[in-house]
Design brief:
Number of strands: 0
Order of helices and strands: HHHHHHH
Structural class: mainly alpha
CATH class: Mainly Alpha
Radius of gyration: 29 Å
Distance between the termini: 108 Å
CATH architecture: Orthogonal Bundle
Largest sheet: none
Protein name: Histone H2A
Organism: Lentinula raphanica
Subunit structure: The nucleosome is a histone octamer containing two molecules each of H2A, H2B, H3 and H4 assembled in one H3-H4 heterotetramer and two H2A-H2B heterodimers. The octamer wraps approximately 147 bp of DNA.
GO molecular function, one term: structural constituent of chromatin
InterPro entries: H2A/H2B/H3 (IPR007125), Histone-fold (IPR009072), Histone_H2A (IPR002119), Histone_H2A_C (IPR032454), Histone_H2A_CS (IPR032458)
Number of helices: 7
């Protein structure tokens, strides 16, 4: 059947009603669109270069894993701030608090994300008073002993 007609076996079976057609994302068990990623890879590499059938599937799987990981961390940050909607701030906090994702996205700037809260220990008031108190005690001891 597939000889001179130029039709694939899956297309012939689908037309005959024997088999339901499934796309590549469903076959791979992914949510990300495999065929769209294949088209993007062809646009980037050029249509004349070879592209394996598994390359877009692998890319879709990696992207889906990264997005799932990032959304889980952002959801945790959202829950920690007692909010119900993930906002750019939560995504930024999720990225910056995870070492591996921060290394991957170190040069990315997230609009409306803000900055990670951090105060240098030297600037904290409790530390400063203790440091000055111990220093003044040392000076008093040196003055009284000498």
């Amino acid at each position: 059947m597939t000889g001179k007609t130029g039709k694939s076996l899956s297309k012939v079976l689908h037309v005959a009603g024997l088999k339901k057609r499934t796309n590549a994302s469903v076959r791979a068990g992914l949510v990300f669109p495999v065929t769209r990623l294949r088209r993007y890879l062809k646009e980037i590499n050029g249509a004349h270069k070879r592209l394996t059938l598994t390359a877009p599937v692998y890319l879709a799987a990696v992207l889906e894993y990264l997005v799932a990981e990032l959304l889980e961390l952002a959801g945790n940050a959202c829950r920690d701030h007692r909010k119900k909607t993930i906002k750019p701030r939560h995504i930024l906090l999720a990225i910056r608090n995870d070492d591996e994702i921060d290394k991957l996205l170190k040069d990315c700037h997230i609009t409306e994300g803000g900055v990670v809260p951090h105060i240098a220990p030297v600037l904290l008031p409790g530390r400063r008073k203790l440091r000055f108190a111990s220093r003044s005690q040392e000076l008093d001891d040196a003055y009284n002993s000498g």
